[in-house]
């Protein structure tokens, strides 16, 4: 277990991914997305590549709902898979195969071998969606003629309060996870690796447009 003097895990996660987060924001695809310089088809391909990530993450979280390090992270309103599918249908895009992406393969692997590491992927994806994702939604909606009901449901969270409240409550949950020091360190490493694995998503979008 983490000792009482241990710095909160959510804070350590933030520090662990700080540089990687700054780097991912420079991905050319994301830069163009934030400048409204992509087509609906390209946005559909982006969501298509995200689908296997959430498929594996949410299947893993559900499968391990009784795991001590994951039981407090069972928050159905945060799950994105069904919303992604609704948006993909609206955009006439199809989900990518789960085995076709290093990030989704990695999530499937840790779900089998070290389920507590799913907490790192929970952090990376959902905090991203609750942060930059909300900014992205404000830009993509008007640029591509999408609304919360039609094509943008991925960014809609039916959380009890604001998205900032949701992030604060998730941070409290993460800080309260019953982890050994080694497990906490492995989660920090896994979050950094998750950011690295995101590069493949954006590189593929650069290739296919
Ligand atoms: C251009 C793209 C992006 C922008 C503009 C952006 C913006 C932001 C902003 C404004 C925050 C809130 C920072 C704060 O609370 O002080 C944030 C947090 C976060 N973002 Fe992003 N983001 C982007 C891409 C991503 C991507 C692709 C991921 C995942 C791979 C991601 C993961 C995260 C995470 C995990 C946090 C939480 C940091 C914390 O612990 O407080 N972001 N982002």
> H/E order of the elements?
HHHHHHHHH
Nearest-integer average pLDDT: 95
Task: Give the CATH H-level superfamily.
Answer: Heme oxygenase-like
Number of helices: 9
Q: Which residue ranges are poorly predicted, with pLDDT under 50 across at least 5 consecutive positions?
A: none
From the N-terminal CA to the C-terminal CA, the straight-line distance is: 46 Å
Top CATH class: Mainly Alpha
Small ligands present: protoporphyrin IX containing FE
By secondary-structure content and strand pairing, the structural class works out as mainly alpha
- In CATH, the topology is named Heme Oxygenase, Chain A
CATH architecture term: Up-down Bundle
Q: How many structural domains are formed by the residues?
A: 1
Helix content: 55-70%
General shape = globular
- The whole-angstrom Rg is 17 Å
Strand content: under 5%
Largest sheet: none
List how many beta strands DSSP finds: 0
What are its keywords?
209 residues; mainly alpha; Heme Oxygenase, Chain A; 0% strand; globular; binds protoporphyrin IX containing FE
Present the secondary structure layout.
Elements: H1 9-24, H2 28-34, H3 40-63, H4 81-90, H5 102-113, H6 118-130, H7 132-144, H8 163-175, H9 181-208
Helix pairs in contact: 1-9, 3-4, 3-5, 3-9, 6-8, 6-9
Bound molecules: protoporphyrin IX containing FE.
């Amino acid at each position: 277990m983490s000792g009482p003097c241990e710095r909160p895990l959510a804070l350590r996660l933030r520090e662990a991914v700080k540089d990687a987060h700054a780097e991912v924001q420079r991905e050319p695809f994301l830069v163009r997305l934030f400048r409204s310089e992509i087509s609906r088809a390209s946005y559909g391909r982006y969501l298509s590549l995200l689908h296997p990530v959430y498929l594996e993450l949410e299947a893993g979280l559900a499968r391990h709902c009784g795991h001590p390090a994951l039981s407090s992270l069972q928050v159905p309103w945060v799950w994105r898979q069904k919303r992604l599918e609704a948006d993909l249908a609206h955009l006439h895009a199809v989900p990518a195969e789960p085995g076709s992406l290093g990030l989704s393969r990695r999530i499937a692997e840790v779900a089998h071998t070290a389920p507590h590491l799913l907490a790192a992927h929970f952090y990376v994806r959902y905090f991203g969606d609750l942060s930059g994702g909300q900014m992205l939604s404000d830009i993509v909606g008007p640029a591509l003629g999408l609304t919360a009901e039609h094509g943008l449901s991925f960014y809609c969270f039916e959380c009890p309060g604001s998205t900032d409240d949701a992030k604060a409550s998730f941070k409290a949950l993460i800080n309260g996870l019953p982890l050994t020091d080694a497990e906490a360190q492995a989660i920090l490493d896994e979050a950094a690796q998750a950011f690295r694995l995101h590069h493949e998503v954006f590189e593929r979008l650069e290739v296919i447009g």
